[in-house]
Specification:
Helix content: 40-55%
Strand content: 5-15%
Shape: globular
Number of strands: 6
Order of helices and strands: HHHEHEHHHEEHHEHEHH
Largest sheet: 4 strands, mixed
Radius of gyration: 18 Å
Distance between the termini: 11 Å
Strand order of the largest sheet: 4-3-6-5
Length: 263
């Protein structure tokens, strides 16, 4: 689906609240209920725990201000309302401050199943529950700090790391593989794909991640699996710059998807 440019960012009132309508509440409630009914047995227990800690529910569209306050109290993290698309420098800067940028508009009913731009449901339901986990927050903060220090020449490869962890990461548990990436937990099609035998599951390896291309508009053909969120935080000790230089020298791995057709 091409990007729908009719979506516009909302602006908060003097108290920091965004003007969500009864229609927005109904869409949020349907999305929340559908996913929470579908996700048990498919997502990391830390994610479900995070939904509870943040008090997310189907009754009302959450406010960024409230999510920010709860995250700050829990892990020192935060959420900040932004336009859907922000410059990479601003994105990385917010992450380095332990803050997650949150698009403030909510998808319309005709886009319940998929929207290419990040919206409030993807950001709050998908991303924010994991920010209640301290080790995960350490990774987010460290990722932003390192991405800022590496600069533009490393930006694309750094976003591959973000893609295969924060957006589409999988966790190995005693009960089997479970999703923690926001792109999986907020999408029925992606969650179903991730637990099927169609996708390739790979043990997490930084060099391999830096060499793996992806497309944003398809269900993912491969996912990378970590053993714990402490492992995720510990990888910040790696020399990202040297590994990306090595990845550039070796070259990308063959894509596991067809090239996108020009529109």
């Amino acid at each position: 689906m091409p990007k729908d440019t009719t979506y516009t960012s909302l602006h908060p009132d003097a108290d920091g609240h965004f003007p969500y309508t009864a229609d927005d509440d109904a869409v949020w409630g349907e999305l929340f209920t559908r996913q929470m009914d579908f996700l048990p047995g498919k997502v990391a227990p830390e994610y479900i725990d995070g939904v509870t800690k943040l008090g997310l529910n189907a009754a009302k569209t959450p406010q960024v201000k409230d999510i920010d306050a709860k995250l700050h109290a829990l892990t020192g993290a935060g959420a900040e309302g932004v336009p859907a698309i922000i410059p990479p420098s601003q994105f990385y800067d917010l992450l380095s401050q332990r803050k997650f940028p949150v698009a403030t508009f909510l998808r319309r009913r005709e886009h319940m199943d998929y929207i290419e731009e990040p919206d409030l449901f993807h950001e709050v339901f998908g991303h924010c529950p994991m920010l209640t986990n301290p080790a995960y927050c350490d990774f987010i903060e460290g990722f932003g700090t390192r991405a800022k220090s590496l600069g533009k020449g490393y930006r694309w490869h750094m976003f591959r790391l973000f893609w295969f962890t924060v957006e589409f990461g999988m966790l190995r548990t005693t009960d089997g593989l479970r999703a923690y990436g926001a792109g999986i937990v907020s999408s029925p099609a992606e969650a179903e794909n991730a637990i099927s035998d169609r996708a390739l599951m790979q043990d997490f390896d930084l060099l391999t991640v830096f060499r793996t291309p992806y497309r944003i508009d398809i269900v993912q053909p491969t996912y990378f699996v970590i053993d714990s969120f402490d492992q995720l935080a510990a990888m910040l000790d790696a020399d990202f710059g040297a590994l990306i230089d090595q990845a550039k020298q070796i070259g990308d791995l063959p894509a596991l998807f067809e090239a996108k057709q020009a529109s």
